[in-house]
Amino acid sequence: MSFKESGQMKPLLSIFIFIMCLFTIVFFRMESRRLGYTVLKMTHSANQMKSQYQSELVKLARINDPQNLQQYAMSTLTLKKAKQGQIIHMTEEGFAVSQ
Amino acid sequence: MKNRILLLFFGFIFLWILLIARGAQLQLFPSEKLLSIKQRQFNKKITLSSKRGDILDRNNIELAVSINSFSLYADPSLIDQPKTVARKLSKVLKISRKPLYKKLKQKKSRFKWIKRKLDQKTYEEIKSWKVRGLAFKKEPKRIYPNGRLLSQVLGLVGYEQQGLEGLESRYEDHLSGNKKEVRVHKDARGRPLLENGHVFISNPNGGDIQLTIDRDLQFTLQEELNQAVHEHQADRAYGVVLDAQTSEVLAIASTPTYDNNRSLKVPSSHRRIHSISDAFEPGSTLKTLFVAGALQSGKYKPNTVIDAGDGYMQIGRRRIHEADDHHKFGKITVSEVLARSSNVGVSRMGLDLGSKKVHEILSSFGFGQELGIELPGEAKGILHKPPYNKHLLASISFGHGVTATPLQMASAYSVIANGGLLYRPRIVKANRNPLTGEWTESSPELIRRVIDKKVAAQMRLMMTFVTGQLGTGQNARVEGFPVSGKTGTAQKVNPEGGGYLDGAYISSFAGFLPANDPRFVIYIAIDYPKEEYYGSQVAAPVFSRVAKYAIRKFGLAPVLLSKKQVIEKDPFKKIKKKVSGKVGTDVEPDQMGDLIGEKSKIYSKMPNLNGKSLREVIRSLQGYPNKVHISGKGAVVVDTLPRSGKSIEGRPITLIFGAQPKVPKNSQNF
Questions:
Q1: Which CATH architecture has domain B218-262+272-429+444-553?
Q2: How many helices (H) and strands (E) does chain B have?
Q3: Domain-wise residue ranges, chain A
């Protein structure tokens, strides 16, 4: 292509670049909107998970309620309360030994 | 033709100019009306609610937590078949059909609450019907997973999650998060749009608080108090367990207890924290503090002799009696006055010290004033200002004519337990900053020194006599631990008029253990027990049971070991027996070398411990010099390190516990 011909292409090129810029802007705006929706969805899921975690935590705490455990141990496992003579005293290091 | 074209051209140009001018006007000079329309169309108001902070025990076990729940409401104008919907809802929600139908048939109404704070299951079921006109609102719900545990102290929250009583109310500002309203841009479907990189502005939750309470000890205390009330048909029972060194509240309870998840239905009189708000005459448990003050004054020593006479003392027209008519102690020492709980003995001391000194002693222990625990409704108790008449002075000396709350009594005993310092009792150990997530721990706050270390040590020793052979508190003994304490049996004041109720008593026991190095201060009081009423019969056994649990829970090693409890430390003893059994002679000192060889032969290899319980393991490992580590959870040993038969010389033994392979048919103990 001669210099003259390339000079004739310049306006076309400018228009092309201008249009491309517009497209790029639109593309980025669309992308940011799309990402916004993704973030929104993930925030919802995270909140839902947090909420679920919290209710599971409550369930666990309810199961571990001493009253509940005692009832289970005595009714289902037919265990009895410990008596004094049956208790093994332990120290941090191990079993209780005479000093 | 050309003119027409030009006219049309300029016409269009004019129209365009008009359009642009209008556009410019709207942009440059916007009207308020149009702005508000724009706001409505493109903006959305979102309410960001925050979760109320949790309340945890000292081991971070949840005592009060918030979860999301769903509240059901209806728009009656949109409901087509109110009768059918009411019938379906009444089945699921367990509400009568009539009031539901009444709400749903009001076609003019646009909003009616049906039921608030549904559980997840009910919410999902109703949601699955997809009924037009029924909708849900997400609301937080306060849950107390342990139900009856610590109910009065935790308090309650209202429908709007506002703290109404107890810690929920006292720490309202810290626990409750703030509701925040934000405006965000929305799309055509009403979804909020990403703006400056943010979709949602997160709202910080309320802060958590950690208590000094130990959940398991609290449960035991409540259980024991309930059992005592049931056993003695008492009106009420109180219990406080404090850390002896810092006055941290490890457990605090009073009966009756109630399920905190239904606390709005409980009468308000039950919801009070009785252990800090009920003040009553403590009776003989006050003698300890009085004697401590008397020793501190320097006027008395533990072996000072006091004439307790023939069981009574005449003051004007009135007589001060010993608790039992047959008690005639004669001349006894101050230590014996305490051990035998002599009313006459302490009365003589009180009269000798005078009103001002007695008042000074009791107020220095914290009577007649709020201790400042972080709970609402704390009572001061009654401590009259001096001068007292002689009878009142004598009465105050043995715990009548003065009132104190269970917390005040426990706190005063902690003074003796910790060496003479009065600390402010505290129940909140730490609080978490919701923004940084950091815990800020509060430290024990010293109020004043009440008695010297030496006096406190003397008192601790004197108080062990109470649980000794001649003492009144033998039922408070705890095997393996020396216990310092004092029984109390106070007549109950008649609330309707003066004087005392006939045959009505408040039986109590206050004490701490181990006496040589106190860890727990425990105060137990049983209000109006029927039949038996002495503190030694009613309250002391409860003290003992609570104390036994506390020492097990906190892993205290026994101080006083009976032969039965001790694992033989000297391995030679066993071998000596074995060898002498074989040859029929005792082992001579020069045979020691052989014994060591024998010993190393027996104890150098790992025995087979698999399937054995902890009790059996202890028996099997008697005499082994190795350190023993325990890991895992379960009833029996499932594995050992080193394995059975391997050399264990100089190596620690690790026992791994696990579940028992088979559930035994016979009942077992835990």
A1: 3-Layer(aba) Sandwich (3.40)
A2: 22, 23
A3: 3-77
